[in-house]
Structure formats: structure tokens, C-alpha cells
Design goal:
It is a multi-pass membrane protein. The protein has about 150 residues and is an all-alpha fold. Helices cover about 70% and strands about 0% of the residues. The chain contains five helices and no strands.
Length: about 150
Amino acid sequence: MTTPAQDAPLVFPSVAFRPVRLLVTCLVITAAAVLAAGLSGHLLAGVFFGIGLLLGLLNALLVRRSVAAITAQDHPLKRSMAVNSATRLAVITVLALIIAFVFRPAGLGVMFGLALFQVLLVATTALPVWKKIRATGVAAPEVAEERNPGNE
């Protein structure tokens, strides 16, 4: 008998998430964006870009908090994580769209800031893991099988 996917226990691997480093990176990028936008005569676009970066960081912190709360339960379910994620993303997206609409065209910087934050988040969490994998020589099972075809 198998467990339906929505009722299966939630297993969430630990990741190399460093919020302080991301905050500093976001502040540096925001300062550069504000400077560049100010020099081009669109200061508010840079400010809204920084707001988008900070909204992305807020989202990442809320993800960490919700994962910790859900996985601490006796029987964590994928459904609760999915509902939590959908709700959080909907709220942040609606907030960003409202800012973009009310303060258009400069407010669109919020959307670009959110998008760039996702790239930063993936880069800052995936690269350390990738480096650790390369340093330890751990290979994916498919790659290991290709290297040793006689192990069947």
C-alpha cells in the first residue's frame, strides 16, 4: 500500500542559506541600483528595485521559518507546505503588483528586484553545495554508473 503524495511525510534537506550575507548583498546591489538610477534621472526606480530585493529576502526568511515549523511537527505533510508556499507567494506577488501599479513606471523596479533576488538566492545556496560536492568527489548515481559500467 502506498501513501498518496499529498499525505506523504515532508522531507526537506538543509541548504546553505545565509540570510545575513544575502542582506549585505542586497544592500550593496540596492546602493548600486539607486546610484545608477539617480545618475540616469530615475532615482525612484532604484529605490523600488531595492524594495523588490528586500521583499525577496523577506520571502526567503518566511520560507525558512515555515519549513522549520512544519518539519517540527510529528507528521509533517507536503500539503501544508504547499498551501503555506502558495499563500505566501500570492501575498508577496499581489503586494509587488500593487506597488508596481500605483507607482508606475518606477514601481516596476519591485518586480525586477524580486526576479534578481531569486537568481541571487539560487546562486548563493547552490554554489556552496556544488563546490562541496566537487571537493568531496561525490557523484550522482547516474554518473557513478557511467564511470563504472561493470558494476551491475
